[in-house]
Amino acid sequence: xxxxxxxxxxxxxxxxxxxxxxxxxxxxxxxxxxxALCSMLRDMxxxxxxxxxxxxPDNLAFMDDDxxxxxDGDIEAPDISVAVDCSEITRFPKLMDIFKKAKTTICIxxxxxxxxxxxxxxxxxxxxxxxxxxxxxxxxxxxxxxxxEAEALFAAIDTDTGNFLYSNTTKQSHEIVCELxxxxxxxxxxxxxxxxxxxxxxxxxxxxxxSQMSLFHDGKIALTVITQQMLEETGAKMxxxxxxxxxxxxxxxxxxxxxxxxxxxEKIFASMRAKSTANVRDIATAFGxxxxxxxxxxxxxxxxxxxxxxxxxxxxxxxxx
Length: 321
Ligand SMILES: [Mn+2]
What we know:
The chain is built from twelve helices and twelve strands. It is α/β, with parallel strands linked by helices and 321 residues long. It has a six-stranded parallel sheet. The chain has a six-stranded mixed sheet with strand order 7-8-9-10-12-11, sandwiched between helices. Strand 7 and strand 8 form a beta hairpin. Helix 2 packs antiparallel against helix 5, helix 5 runs antiparallel to helix 6 (171-181) and helix 5 (147-160) crosses helix 7. The longest helix has 16 residues, at 28-43. It starts with a helix and ends with a helix. Manganese (II) ion binds at residues 29, 85, 110, 129-130, 160.
């Protein structure tokens, strides 16, 4: 059972030192939600920080405002820890110990879970983004978002809804954004920060991966690979390949998109997306992985060429005729 925003607001006001915890490999929602919440709590006189385990991705760094900190060993224990955009503390493994030191723990999330991990929880899988929930919490606390906070919340909702195109987008998503306009958000500048600050090596890796793509099963399956050698050649990191699978899915007629990432000689991570009717979770679970129907992944402990063969065979089986 969820606690109310009123209860969560009351608890937040009881603490002085409050740390916020987005999930590792944070996305726009994790960073936008925590940036907005941290800014509001600071405005209310709280000693608030957002703890992360590595530097912010380039396209999210515009939301920093001196709130995001990679803690060292002797950071003081918080009164309150808040997990945002994740409902399992294993989603920030390097910071779990600091999280647990708080007298009170709170979770605000929108992922489907059976888990109520904290002392106080607000988990709503119908919300398109954690940013929507932070907005509603702010409303409960009679706090009108500042321009910076509103832009962080816009970034949160825009990224998690795929620019308001994914099936999680609701009337509420748009209504909240309407209200964010009242705080004076500059949408084109946020768009440039989020989507037009790509490092050249990331683009080079994407181009290389897309140009090596193969189609199978009458063009219904698209597959490409990211090898360690490709990373060396382009100077990119494996995380720079995150959008490749979505780009494969945009190809006309493609129902299943697969990107095989070579993490080690016999350790291949498969990232998969389905377009309309296919179910990639069934492919992922066949290899011990998991995820959602339209987005799933698994690790395959075998050489790359074998992983290609096995995953294509499974994908063909899942697609049927
Ligand atoms: Mn999210």
